[in-house]
Sequence to fold (88 residues):
Amino acid sequence: MATTFNDRIDVRISTEQKELVKYASLLRGFKSVSEFVVYCINNEATKIINDSNVMFKSVEDKKIFIDAILNPPAPNENLKKAQLRYKK
Fold:
């Protein structure tokens, strides 16, 4: 079954970066630099998503975290005391 490609990403990199990527691609035996780049970005994206899913096990966990960031609770007495101690 052939894979159909119907989207594109264009990036600009320095000559040194391109040579580094070409060399790494050759060392790993990829047919082309493009194949190597697609492989690498797919692996990295998967790792990032998996790391995120480890931190937040569910959509509800993510909602709770975002809500706490966007709508933090008012400081309690202990936090107010700690702030005063820090300022001294």
Remarks:
- Residues 33-55 form the longest helix (23 residues).
- The CA atoms of residues 56 and 64 lie 10 Å apart.
